[in-house]
Write a structure and sequence with these properties.
There is one protein chain. The protein starts with 7 loop residues before the first strand and ends in a 5-residue tail after the last strand. It has six helices and eight strands, in the order E-H-H-H-H-E-H-E-H-E-E-E-E-E. The protein is an alpha+beta fold. The protein has one domain (about 5-25, about 90-235). The longest helix has 19 residues, at about 105-125. It has helices at about 30, 40-45, 55, 75-80, 105-125, 165-175, and strands at about 10-20, 100-105, 130-145, 180-185, 195, 205-215, 220-225, 230-235.
Length: about 240
């Protein structure tokens, strides 16, 4: 399948959800009101007193100047792109460029992240317990995206459950062709939908929502806790 064969659809989602590890704090530069075009000068000045500044900012060259975003909450939009790495590939990238993933609903984002957290925990051989803290980011998506939702019942390799080779090739081909990203059926939450955005300005208005704790029972994530209310919810496999 070539980029020309995939239809474009306008995606207008208010209240889309992205769930990230709480270990990643906001990045001061992105939160500043300064013009993104001036960021290299600000970084140069900051490095004179803080040589580790680039470790938090990442690689700005991954995002064209005209597609950078700044201001309140901008860290949640910029960081997935400036911190891309071949050590952290995902469904639509081999890690040579960043992708911002979000679900159209909280439950979709939750099941997507639970799946990946389970894979990570299985490799650690860690015992049962409350293992990690996450934060919910609520944002808006307004973009013309290549639409893979029509492939849901065609057993297409780009939507394979565990093998990302085809989807990574497709993602690179789409980005090279000038695509802003993809909209596709959630693989982990039937009925849900996800986006993989290739640029941070395809999303806007990110605000922090709930803080969440995931419980690992030794084989799977079986419980999720709302850290603010202490409510605990059992995770039921919906796949």
């Amino acid at each position: 399948m070539t980029p020309e064969e995939i239809p474009l659809s306008r995606v207008e989602w208010e209240g889309a959800v992205r769930i990230i590890r709480s270990a990643f704090p906001p990045i001061d530069l992105f939160e500043d009101i300064a013009d993104p075009a001036d960021w290299p000068l600000l970084i140069s000045a900051e490095q004179k007193t803080n040589p580790r500044v680039m470790a938090s900012i990442g690689n700005l060259d991954f995002v064209p100047i005209e597609r950078r975003v700044g201001g309140n909450g901008a860290s949640y939009l910029m960081a997935p792109f400036t911190h891309g790495s071949t050590d952290r590939p995902s469904r639509f990238t081999d890690g040579t460029f960043g992708v911002l993933y979000a679900g159209n609903a909280f439950e979709t984002a939750l099941f997507e992240t639970i799946h990946h957290h389970e894979r990570f925990m299985a490799r650690t051989a860690e015992g049962p317990g409350w293992t990690s803290q996450f934060r919910e980011i609520v944002l808006s998506v307004h973009a013309d995206l290549h639409d893979l939702r029509g492939l849901e019942h065609q057993d297409h390799p780009a939507l394979a459950s565990g093998d990302y080779q085809a989807s990574q090739r497709l993602g690179k081909a789409l980005k090279d062709a000038g695509s802003d990203g993809v909209v596709y059926p959630s693989i982990r939450h039937p009925g849900g939908e996800c986006v993989g955005l290739f640029y941070p300005d395809c999303a806007s208005a990110p605000v922090q929502g709930r803080h969440l704790d995931y419980h690992w029972d030794g084989e799977r994530v079986d419980l999720v806790r709302d850290a603010a209310t202490a409510e605990v919810f059992r995770v039921v496999d919906v796949s």
